Amino acid sequence: AHVNVATLARLLRAGALDDLPELRQGGPPVADRQRVSYYGISEGGIQGVTALALSPDLSRGALNVPCGVFSMFFFRSSDLHEFLPLFQGAYPDPLVRQELMAVSQPLWDYTDPVTYAPHLLNDPLPGNTPKRVLYQEGINDASVPNQNTRIMARTMGLKLLYPGVEPVFGIDAAQGPLDSAYTQFDIGMRPRLGGDNVPPDVNPVHMAVRRLEAVKDQLQRFLRDDGRVEDTCHGQPCMFPMP
C-alpha cells in the first residue's frame, strides 16, 4: 500500500496522470502537479507518517485523529470490540492475550508509523527532505487512544500549538503559526479514558473532530503553498462541547 501511495505521488508530480479523463473537469486537469500533499483521517492519519517518510514527492501532510504503536493500541481502543470475541476464542486466558499483543510489535514495525516518526521533521530517509506536519488529536477519542497519539507527537518532536486544551508530558507548547505542530480539539466527552487497559465503549469524538469548522479551517490554511499550522480557535483552547 505504501509503495502504491509513493508511486501515485510520483505520477502526480510528473504530470503522468494529466491526460486521464477521470482527472479532468471542464478541460484542465484537476490535479496540480506543483501541489501534491497528503491528507489522512484515522488509519489514513496513522499510516500518513509512514507515507510521508517514504515518499520524496510529498512535502507536507495533515493527519487527523492519528496514532501509532499498534501493540499498545488495540487494548486501549474501542475498535478491539469487533475482533475481541475471535481473540478470546483462540486464547481464553486474558494474560496470554496481553502477552501475545505485546510481543507482536516486531510484526508491525515494518510499517508502524512510530518506526518512521523520527525521520519526518529531522533526519529524513535517503532521498527525502524534512516534512511539514499537522497532527490533529481529538481529546478522549475512544477509537484512537490519546496516549498513542502523544507518543507519536513526542517521537516526531512536534510542538503543541498554543493554547492547547491540556498540557502533555514531554511536549512543549509554542505560539503559532508553526511549520509543523500537534493540535488538540475537545468536544467535551467525559469521563477521561486511559486509566486502565480495557477497550472503552465507542464515543463520537473520532468522527466529530473532522467536522469542526476550526479543524477544517486549520486544514485549509495548512495545505496552502505557504501554509503553516495556525490557531483557528481565536486564542482560546479548542473546546466545542456537544449539546
Detailed description of the structure:
The structure is a single chain. The protein is α/β, with parallel strands linked by helices. The chain is 33% helix and 11% strand. It is built from ten helices and six strands; from the N terminus they run αβαβαααααβαβββαα. It has a four-stranded parallel beta sheet with strand order 1-2-3-6, with helices on both faces. A two-stranded parallel ribbon has the order 4-5. The longest helix has 13 residues, at 2-14. The chain starts with a helix and ends in a 21-residue tail after the last helix. The mean pLDDT is 94.
- Radius of gyration, CA atoms, in whole angstroms: 19 Å
User: How would you write the strand order of the largest sheet?
Assistant: 1-2-3-6
Average residue pLDDT: 94
Q: Tally the helices.
A: 10
Overall form: globular
Structural class by helix and strand composition:
alpha/beta
Topology:
Blueprint: H1 2-14, E1 38-41, H2 43-54, E2 60-64, H3 70-73, H4 84-90, H5 94-103, H6 105-108, H7 113-116, E3 132-138, H8 146-156, E4 160-162, E5 173-175, E6 181-185, H9 205-208, H10 213-222
Parallel strand pairs: 1-2, 2-3, 3-6, 4-5
Main attributes?
alpha/beta, two-stranded parallel ribbon, 243 residues
In short:
By secondary structure, this protein is of the alpha/beta class.
